[in-house]
Amino acid sequence: MDLKLDVEELIKLRHHLHANAEVSNQEEKTAKIVVEFLKKFKPDHIWENVGGHGVIALFKGKEAGNSIGFRADLDALHIAETIELEYASKTPHTAHKCGHDGHMTMVAGIAAYLENNPVKKGDIYLIFQPAEETGEGAARINKGLNELNIQLDYLFGLHNIVGYPKGQILTKKGTFAAASRGMVIKLFGKTSHAAEPEYGISPVMAIAEITTQMSVVHITNPFSDLTLATVIHSELGEIAFGTSPGYGEVRITLRAMRDEDMQKLIDFAENLVAEQAKKELLEYEISYTETFPSTENTEEAYQIMKNAGEIAKTDFNELEKPFKWSEDFGQYKLQMKTGFFGVGAGEDTPHLHDETYDFPDDILLSGINMYVGLMKYFKLN
Ligand SMILES: [Zn+2]
Ligand SMILES: [Zn+2]
Prior knowledge:
By secondary structure, this protein is α/β, with parallel strands linked by helices.
């Protein structure tokens, strides 16, 4: 692949973004770095502060044609940088350990590519969304696109995938990444003297029953595909040996490969909580946070990516199984046609969210090349 890009300049951008890592919803500096870079390539328009610190750049063709979006994510994680890097994160306890610095650089690379290959027909939107890790950003960009009256014929996104050879393009029909959400259960009872628990209402039995049943829900219930509940936190009463607890909390991550199974899992969990609360005379509250729908590719989206992969002569591979993690890219399918793929990040690269992870610069061009294939497929330039 010869995209005639200044790779050194792109690597410099990736390192600059890495050094200035910011967590979800604080991506102010990151967005500025992206905007400064994009401006060099004279987009027709740049919108800033879309849905938080989101950035959208438009490159317009002279003739009407397809309107295609490419999406990257701005946020880093609350993980300290523990490896020696010249461009180590300067932000305390914050670093790009999911490779979003690489994702941004690849989408910014489209702008650089367009310098020598301007859009002829149609429009290209480069979308840099905030808050992917918390599952909030994509929904806010959806809203922002509506407000700006921007309609896309297709939106594409990627994630670097550890455990696969560098530069491989990986995708599949149907579910690519799981749906997940955080369930917060609050149980309200009444304290009493520890010597007289019979005068109080303790959530202890309900918590025991809820955490036990949810931990085996994937065995006790029929689901059509992998479905899982992981109890991640639980709290009960105070550290006071004279008091029987009157309040408890449980937090559970619900995960499913299919949105239908997710609904089944939610119904099961809500019924279980209601039943246990009734039995133990507790009041309760249920809320959800970090909601990610599943990331899916329709048959059409898969075929488009396959064709684009061939046009760009990528090492295109169909995955057998979806990934158990979640990606908030799944939100976009609720509003527009979408396609999502992975780029192999190396078999021996540390796992995503591992403190020793660092995005491999030598896969930058593979991602950009696939984007170029998609632009060619839609006859944009
Ligand atoms: Zn991540
Ligand atoms: Zn990520």
